[in-house]
Amino acid sequence: MAKAKIAFYWCASCGGCEEAQVDLADKLFDLIEAADIVLWPVAMDFKKEDVEKVGDGSIDVAIINGGIRTSEHEEMVKLLRRKSKLVIAYGSCAHMGGIPALANAYTRESILKYVYEEAPTVTNPEGKRPKTRVSVDGMDFELPEFLEYLDPLDAVIDVDYYIPGCPPTPEITWEAVSSILSGNLPPKGHVFGSDRALCYECPLNETKPEKVTIDTIKRVHQTELDPNKCYLTQGVLCMGPVTRGGCKALCIKGNMPCTGCFGPVDGVSYQGAKALSYFSSVINIDDEDAFRKLVEEVGVDPLGWFSKYCLGKGTIKRR
């Protein structure tokens, strides 16, 4: 029986998803036994030409992480879509745009101007910027184009399944890969993980009252968290109520609130709007000055509060 063929590729991401794949540890040997890896640029010396040479649909599954920020990303994922039977969006950036999609709050021009002209550490009096094509000593070089905005993977190609997380846990990764390799496929569009909010698996859930109310919002550096008490009841923003479970509450167990990397539960199109709605509903302040102070605290970074990973996915997803 022929082995399945798997391709791994990364786009605009930090490299944490590759670390998560390596964190499969002994399961990597099971994967190698069950499948041939035909593309994994971060670990093996494959070229674009290697993918172009194989037949359309000859790769069983392509696992792609990172958002689409350059013309090279766009070109490669379209190529992999054509060559692959199944495509998995792996990690928060491919799933929803991730943290890199926060740059969508700015235009392409303003980003380039800051990076190459205005940043305090930059010395560039002539305002030079990278060119997509340049010749040096008779040799031609080409760089990818920096696109106007960052998009999640499914805004550019059709995606079959999603593995959430920043990065995904090894358990979620293996659950998805093993189910696909075994042919035990969930419905198309399935997001691996729990179908309930993170609070249901949070070890602090029992300390949360039936009705949560808050009269202040603090950042983690502004208070000393009690590790044995629901963070929301301590006035610290935790995205657990509006985030898909399945991560085993790793951040909570590390004494940090959830920041929402697993995305929304089924049926919620935009996690940021759901989060804003939820936290608005639990505010219990009668004093106008105290309310204004809370609004000012949130207003310092509302996208970072509510849309840290999902800005690329929302209806209102860019400037």
Automatic annotation (TrEMBL):
Any one GO molecular-function label of the UniProt entry: iron-sulfur cluster binding
Keyword Oxidoreductase recorded: yes
Domain of life, source organism: Archaea
UniProt xrefs under InterPro entries: Hydrogenase_assoc-protein (IPR051349), NADH_UbQ_OxRdtase-like_20kDa (IPR006137), NiFe_Hase_small_N_sf (IPR037024)
Keywords linked to the UniProt accession: Oxidoreductase
Chain ranges of the NADH:ubiquinone oxidoreductase-like 20kDa subunit domain: 14-178
Pfam families per the UniProt record, alphabetical: Oxidored_q6
Entry-linked Gene3D superfamilies: NADH:ubiquinone oxidoreductase-like, 20kDa subunit
Residue ranges crossing the lipid bilayer per the database entry: none
Protein name: Coenzyme F420-reducing hydrogenase, gamma subunit
Organism for this UniProt entry: Korarchaeum cryptofilum (strain OPF8)
